[in-house]
Write a structure and sequence with these properties.
- The radius of gyration is 18 Å and the shape is elongated.
- The protein is an alpha+beta fold.
- It is 23% helix and 8% strand.
Length: 182
């Protein structure tokens, strides 16, 4: 459970992305013990299993699988875009040089000779920047990461009013943090 919380925290503390506990949503992430570290890439619109074997319980691995799941759009190869950022050899999404090898030989060789590639410590600054750029229109924090000074609950009773977030105007206006509106 700690690895999941830490993996989510990598995204929430460095980007405008937030997570909330599932209530009755039909589309949600479901963390479960699996035989490897995997998640379907892109939003499925329904339950989406993030499978984590015992060897996957590390912050960076969980952050990697969350990003696989988090993309709202699955892009074709012709539309893949780095959003104006430089190529990031140390992205949490980048695999190491011998990932998936069957014979011990390199499977990925960086163009920049000797550059270290891949890591699973946590998201990189470029990972955060790309996520913010990708979701800037949906992020009320403006897509620049960090917190927002107006992302607060005005009433101490907000945690008990979550079921009203979707339709009660008072709750929407006064419980922005609880209702994930910022």
């Amino acid at each position: 459970m700690t690895a999941i919380k830490n993996g989510m925290a990598e995204w929430t503390k460095n980007t405008c992305i937030t997570f909330k506990k599932r209530t009755n949503e039909q589309a949600y992430a479901n963390f479960k013990l699996g035989s490897g570290c995997s998640s379907y890439v892109g939003r499925t619109g329904r339950i989406q299993d993030i499978k984590l074997a015992r060897g996957c319980w590390y912050t960076g691995i969980v952050a990697h699988e969350i990003e696989n799941k988090h993309n709202f759009k699955k892009y074709s190869k012709s539309t893949i875009d780095s959003l104006g950022t430089a190529y990031d050899y140390l992205s949490v999404m980048h695999y190491g040089g011998r990932a998936f090898t069957k014979n011990g030989q390199p499977t990925i060789v960086p163009v920049k000779a000797g550059a270290p590639i891949g890591q699973r410590k946590g998201i990189s600054a470029t990972d955060a920047k790309q996520m913010n750029l990708l979701y800037k229109e949906q992020c009320s924090k403006g897509g620049n990461g960090g917190g927002s000074s107006n992302c607060v609950d005005i009433s101490s009773r907000c945690p008990g009013w979550t079921k009203y977030c979707s339709y009660h105007s008072y709750v929407k206006a006064n419980c922005k943090k609880t209702c994930n509106l910022c």
